[in-house]
Specification:
alpha/beta; 2 domains; Rossmann fold; 8 helices; single chain
Length: 257
């Protein structure tokens, strides 16, 4: 119960890693608002978590939606201690054939959406003189990704934005960090989308894609939701009270910078 009495928003929380992070925060005693493009799924995930969790629709690329998201959390919980900026998409493709509209969509959700949701949280946290923001970034924010230029660009930008937000918000007592996960091979995104995308763009079978990505990890396996959630919770506690502007790798040793 390391986050007892705290309140949080998790974006992109209706399924997958976002839902797992919301569940872990709630298990640690935190009141949680789950925000997602799918209101139906957000409400269902919140009901499954219980413990006073709230679900709502919010598009992180919309300032109006993000302001409403923060206002809803404050109305329900009395304050906003934590924002987990998890919402994101991935569209892969060879750079010579990649549709610029798909590029713009990835940048809009992953980078602009991070800024817009963080901005809404920062306005509230600045008034409180306290708060913690954690962006879910990626190992692709540290090293370019094969046939994945838009995603890597958005995540590199996310680390720069994290550092800039940390500098801007430090005088207000607000910390801003990000977590850079390795490949969540058994997670929803990989199972529902990435294995098929990468098999097509890399000319491999799905089994070969899994073997390729596992072979790149010194610890020999993909990341799990629990691996990521443990580090996120740590960053939200007072144990990380002297950490801001950091991008922590959780990659099984695949990325060490």
């Amino acid at each position: 119960m390391r986050l007892e009495g705290k309140s949080a928003i998790v974006t992109g929380a209706a399924q997958g890693l976002g839902e797992a992070l919301a569940q872990r925060l709630a298990d640690e005693g935190c009141s949680v608002l789950l925000a997602d493009m799918s209101e139906e799924k957000a409400l269902a995930a919140a009901e499954k978590i219980g413990k006073g969790a709230i679900g709502m629709r919010a598009d992180v690329t919309s300032p109006t939606d993000c302001d409403a998201m923060v206002a809803r959390a404050v109305a329900a919980f009395g304050k906003l201690d934590i924002l987990i900026a998890n919402a994101g998409i991935l569209i892969a493709g060879d750079v010579c054939e990649f549709d610029p509209e798909k590029w713009r969509k990835v940048i809009d959700v992953n980078l602009n959406g991070y800024f817009i949701s963080a901005q809404a949280a920062c306005k509230q946290m600045a008034q409180q003189k306290s708060g913690c923001i954690v962006q879910i970034n990626s190992k692709s924010g540290k090293k370019g990704s094969f046939r994945n230029s838009a995603y890597a660009a958005s995540k590199f930008g996310g680390i720069g934005l994290t550092q800039s937000l940390a500098l801007d918000m430090a005088p207000h007592g607000v910390r801003v960090n990000c977590v850079c996960p390795g490949n969540l091979l058994d997670g929803t995104l990989w199972q529902d989308s990435l294995f098929a995308q990468y098999a097509q763009t890399q000319g491999l079978t799905i089994e070969q894609v899994r073997a390729k990505y596992e072979s790149q990890v010194p610890l020999g396996r993909g990341a799990t939701y629990n691996d990521i959630a443990g580090v996120v919770v740590f960053l939200c506690t007072d144990d990380a009270g002297y950490m801001t502007g950091q991008a922590l790798n959780v990659t099984g040793g695949q990325e060490m910078r």
